[in-house]
Amino acid sequence: MYRNLLKRLFDLLISCIVLILFSPLMLCVYVVLKVVNKGDAFFLQERPGLLGRPFYIIKFKTMRDLHNKDGKLLPDKERLTRAGKIIRQLSIDELPQLLNVLRGEMSLIGPRPLLMAYLPLYNGFQRRRNEVKPGITGWAQVNGRNAISWNQKFELDVWYVDNISFRTDLKILILTVVKVMKGSDINSSVDVPMPRFTGNN
Question: Burial of 37 by CB count in 10 Å (0-12 exposed, 13-18 middle, 19+ buried)?
Fold first, then answer.
């Protein structure tokens, strides 16, 4: 019952509360990024949702579109702004995804939506992570995030798929808040980016 009905109500309730509470902060971040980025404050990218169906994830844009002389984007470290790094460290860049939750494309809790390019590389076990909606945070995020291997990440994601419950979601939500406040694990992607997934070979 929780998985098929109450989880969606939980998503809507928490998302609305957080959006109302953090709307002044989000407005300030929007204005800052419009100035710092000299343009867009939001980053939209196509990601796989439930059963691999594509949707556009919404995040605050923490990197500028800087290119080298050949027209290729510069490395992330060179494009990440000072304001963007702070926003990432506090996980504020994730807040716009609450709109994805309200639209039914994501859940608060679930496997993080990866790149569309990874879909053909999954084996049968790894593909199971797409049996549920992707989440803003998840079991893998509170158990190491980028500090763990791809195999460990997939194992944690599939464990969550098989063990969805209100108790599990509440535990992940609380651990996420604690880790964000402590600045541990959750913001590891700022300094330790996860290498690209290249399949099992």
Answer: buried
Task: Report the sign of the C-alpha dihedral through residues 36, 91, 56, 47, in that order.
Answer: positive
Residue 200 placed within a domain: no
Considering its fold, how many domains does the chain have in total?
1
In a domain, 201, yes or no: no
Contact status, residue 98 vs residue 19, Cβ threshold 8 Å:
yes
Distance of CA 73 to the CA centre of its chain: 22
Reported as a single tens digit per residue, the pLDDT across 58-79 is 999 999 888 887 778 888 787 8
In a domain, 195, yes or no: no
Tokens of 43: 């980053």
For tokens 């969606």, what's the residue? Answer: 8
Q: What is the CA radius of gyration of the chain?
A: 17
- Domain extent for 140: 2-190
- Cα end-to-end distance, the chain, whole Å: 39
pTM of the model: 0.89
